[in-house]
Amino acid sequence: MTASERDDLLLDIRGLRASYGAVEVLRSIDFTVARGEIVALLGTNGAGKSTILRCISGLLRPDSGVISFDGRDVAGITTEETVQLGITQVPGGRGLLPNLTVEENLRMGAYPIRKDKKAVKAGYERVYETFPRLSERRRQLAGLMSGGEAQMLAIGRALMLQPKMMMIDELSLGLAPLIVQQLVQIVRDINASGVSMILVEQSANLALSITDHAYFIEKGQIRFDGSSKELLERDDLLRSVFLAAAH
Question: Are the C-beta atoms of 245 and 203 separated by less than 8 Å?
Fold first, then answer.
């Protein structure tokens, strides 16, 4: 990689190792996201995909390795610090607070910048412009929303902070194809506004259709790092995990 290519990286992970207790989950992971890029992170259940996201977001302290974000090593810093640097995450299962309204859930997303009233107001405007349906339902309890609306709210909550990079864990899980296509367009629009993205997704076809660069992880190690188009042609990697999606 040339010096100019290295300068273009928003996220640059080198030699990342992480464990849960005595069990090593990540083994010397190298992983990059260029500015303005959407990257697919694919692999088997338990391969380590979500663990990579947890290390990036500060939820898990890695055993070793460098996680450089926008020129700063963020390995081991707190989640609140990573959020303030511009890293946000849409967790698998959405992680909403069902007994709070749409607007209250969004306010929770803006908690790290709660003292900056102007920034919080701009966050609401950004979210409601991106998701007019959320604006219409701002007083509705999150627990009464449809699956598609709940995913919009989860993404909206991550948008409240004007992130530099958004990590989405399972965009399409449990959603009807028509809703998924709407969300895909929204993801593309958010990316076009300048937000880099990591997309963890069980549907290989979906993830590879909206990304240029893909990684495949298996048993804590990167088995593939290259173009999304090339990974689609790698039946040896995709068959066991994505049989339904890839054929």
Answer: yes
* CB-CB contact of 113 with 191 (8 Å): no
40 DSSP β-pair partners: 199, 214
Q: To the nearest 10°, report the CA torsion of 16, 20, 24, 30.
A: -20
Evaluate the CA torsion angle 25, 13, 233, 245 in order and state its sign. positive
Structure-block tokens of residue 67: 């996680």
- Which pLDDT belongs to residue 112? 82
Q: How far apart are CA 221 and CA 79, in angstroms?
A: 24
Amino acid at 65: G
In whole angstroms, what is the distance from residue 233 CA to residue 30 CA? 22
**What are the two backbone dihedrals, phi and then psi, of residue 102, each rounded to the nearest 5 degrees?**
-55, -50
Answer whether 166's CB lies under 8 Å from 90's CB: yes
Assigned architecture for domain 1-86+165-247: 3-Layer(aba) Sandwich (3.40)
Listed in order, the ranges of the chain carrying CATH 3.40.50.300 are 1-86+165-247
Q: pLDDT tens digits for 139-176?
A: 999 999 999 999 999 999 999 988 999 999 989 988 99
Alpha helices by DSSP H, listed for the chain, are: 3-7, 49-57, 79-85, 102-109, 117-130, 132-136, 147-159, 177-192, 204-209, 228-232, 235-246
Q: Per residue in 46-99, pLDDT tens?
A: 899 999 999 999 999 999 999 999 999 999 999 989 998 999 999 887 689 999
